């Protein structure tokens, strides 16, 4: 698994995404603006849901073709909603318990969590505009 390193959209500085204190969002070490927050779930889903902003979880797998269409959209959303959204990629082959806990039947499935509770679910690969339409009311 790769390190979660992102480039700041404001100044271009490369930042390692640590886990910020609960209720805070990661900020650029150079210019202090919010960073795109996109991480790979490593220790399951629960610790990733403890964020001060809504958390969009992408249930995906290597072998899932449509998941590859969703991935770049999620990277764009993380940049566009920096400071307002956290995106978590959860590989269902590595985290079957999380998949079962949220009754994810097919992938890609995206679930938006607010305060740790699921508030929106998108099954299948939607075009970006359609996805934003579903998510925007919660952001
Ligand atoms: Zn910066």
Structural commentary:
With 139 residues, the chain is α/β, with parallel strands linked by helices. It has one domain (36-138): Glutaredoxin (3-Layer(aba) Sandwich), CATH 3.40.30. Helices cover 22% and strands 24% of the residues. The protein has a 5-stranded mixed beta sheet, covered by helices on one side. It has a two-stranded antiparallel sheet with strand order 1-2. Helix 1 (65-80) links the parallel strand 4 (55-60) and strand 5 (86-91). The model has no long low-confidence stretch (mean pLDDT 93). It binds zinc ion. The site of zinc ion (ZN) has 8 residues, from loops.
Q: Quick one: CATH superfamily?
A: Glutaredoxin
CATH class, anyone? Alpha Beta
Distance between the termini: 29 Å
Query: In order across it, which strands form the biggest sheet?
Result: 3-5-4-6-7
Gross CATH architecture: 3-Layer(aba) Sandwich
State the helicity in percent bands. Answer: 10-25%
Order of helices and strands: EEEEHEHEEH
> How would you describe the shape?
globular
Q: Please tally the helical runs, counting DSSP H or I stretches of 4 or more residues.
A: 3
> What structural class should be given to the helix and strand makeup?
alpha/beta
Strand element count: 7
Strand content: 15-25%
Oligomer: single chain
Bound molecules: zinc ion
InterPro entries: Thioredoxin, Thioredoxin-like_sf, Thioredoxin_CS, Thioredoxin_domain
Organism: Meiothermus luteus
GO biological process, one term: cell redox homeostasis
Domain Thioredoxin: 13-139
